[in-house]
Amino acid sequence: MPMDSAPPRPPSPAAAPAPERPRQTSARHTFRQRPLRASLGFLFRLVCALLILLDELARPVYRPLVARIAALRVVHAFERWVAARSVWTILALLVIPYATVEPLKFVGLIWIAGGWEKRGAALLVFAYLLSFVLIERIFAAGRPKLMALPWMAWIIDTANALRARIVAALRLDRLKDRLRRTLTGLRRRIARRLR
Fold first, then answer.
1. Burial code of 64-99, b = ≥16 C-beta within 10 A, e = fewer?
2. CB of 167 within 8 A of CB of 49?
3. Which of 4, 14, 77, 85 is deepest in the core (most CB within 10 A)?
4. Three-point CA angle 85, 87, 89, nearest 5°
5. Integer Cα distance of 129 and 136 in angstroms
6. Where is the region Disordered (predicted)?
């Protein structure tokens, strides 16, 4: 074996191309590249957070009324009827009232901000009542079928995760407990005065 033949060397690091790293995009980079998309995304998250915050704060106020309405026979019959429908019918039954009720909440807030406090408050109360009674009953009855659609399951799971993050970040559980105790005390005081 000749001495001048050396074993082959591995290629030097400079000769081999470096593997590409996935590019990490910061919020600033995304905003520079796509300012409209980033702004709309931020606005969407802000609107969702506002809706979730309002829903979570209004829920303890409406809970006793919603529980009474949900216990009615006609509501149980309606839930059975919804559960017997196809997934696409349930989706239509859910989307139509949702698309009308959610904008009403914003109109109510705009009216309140514009100086029409009574009209805005009345519209807000009506929209939340309709939302908690009608939309939640349709959703509760049709949820198993809706979860069979992968994209709808993703939307539901994402909304639940976002709600949980907002509730945890803002410590809404404590605030809701305080609100619940205040309402209970208020009901007792009103009941005592009415006797």
1. eebeebeeeeebeeebeebeebeeeebbebbeeeee
2. no
3. 85
4. 60
5. 10
6. 1-30
